[in-house]
Known about the structure:
Structural class: alpha+beta
Order of helices and strands: EHEEEEEEEEHEEHEEEEHHHHHHHHHHHH
Strand content: 15-25%
Number of strands: 15
Radius of gyration: 29 Å
Distance between the termini: 64 Å
Amino acid sequence: MTKYKALIGLEMHCEISETKTKVFSSAKNSYDDTPNSNIRPVDMGFPGTLPVVNKEAVRLALMASIILNCKQPEYMYFERKNYYYPDLPKGYQITQETKPAPVGIYGELEYDCKDETKKVRINNIHLEEDAASLDHYDSYSTINYNRAGVPLLELVTYPDFHSADEAVAFLETMRSIYQYAGISEADSKKGQIRCDVNVSIMEIDKDETKEENWGTKVEIKNVNSFGGVRDAINYEIQRQIDLKEDGTYDEMEQQTRRWDEETMSTIYMRSKVDAIDYKYFVEPNIPKFKISSSWIEEIKQSIPVLPRERKEKYIKEYGITDYDAKIIIKDKNIADFYEETINLGVNPKSASNWLTSNILGYLNKFELTIKDISLTPQMLKELIKLVEEEKISSKQAKKVLTESLDTKKSPLDIVKEKNITQNTNTDEIQKIVNEVLEEQPHTIQEYKNGKTNITDFLVGQVMKKTKGKANPSIAMNLIKQELERR
């Protein structure tokens, strides 16, 4: 039995991708453009330039604050966080600290982890500018300033997570919220999500509400995938337990480490810097401005249906399982595809079955998104209708779907081109059934002896003779009737 428990806190950074321009300049907010093409003098920290606050970025930041049940400030302040690094052209970052209050403080959020609903406390969420991006090579590094000044939300939790599974479940929930609310694409492949992880351990029988019982905090910087977060946490917990066991834990200083995917380990970078070392002070070029209660109310009213609400709707109104609902809401584009399909008149359970098994299975196999494929809700409706009208079998439909996804042709066109039809003619199927029983006379006696599952084998023989075109349910019924009669 373990003697220790982990205390894990997260600092989740997510770029606000849904603004046309950067947070303090008129430069385009875009991921795909040529390196160093989306730049204005203020992004580069040129003398005499002044920042101008992007109102839409503030609106979206306040929306995130409201969703997280945080307290919003009466006045908005920005501050300078002073430090030097090559990707920070001004030599400081315009950000927000807790005093004066950022866009949100002291919130909480419920999230699902496996079969449990858990709650995490939010210390704060604040709006800041992102740094430039660095690419490192063997003998040199390059800097792309397109990212410098992109609006960035940093969400800081209390150390309320006790496992990697809980931390990742929360991050997945937040990614969905950002996507559903129209705040960000939250695409880690584009570098829009990064995470700092704080890990410490303590004796399992001590009171974790008292900070004096906490162990030494270790920060793991800039983990850029949820899989990386899981692996980094698990490694770091075990590393600290090993230090406890060999008696050297108390000698460990508060420190910053990085996650190395090649060695699957955390590597020491430096001793941990405290907030005071950044010499925060109020940004002199951005006067404070009042956040009116009417604007807050307007933002509240504009919040769209979020994943948790969609999940409840799918279970209660559409009658699908909790498991399937969780899978569908995980990706907003998948959920939108599902709802569009239902709005076309498709049975919700049928749409759910095809989406969660066949379509998502294909996407996962080839590492694609729903937007990468040519299949539309209308095409899926046509395919399901062919099955329901017994024009093709479920097995045929699965093959047609795969070919449609591979060739980008519509399922209906494939069925027409290849003359894929299901034979529902009872007389024709009866002849095949008789042929099969004459060729397999031993099966009749086996059935009478109680081996009733022999009917599955016989249906397979009928399907083989008809090249998969016989309606399997009709074939099954005829086989049972014939076996009982003989």
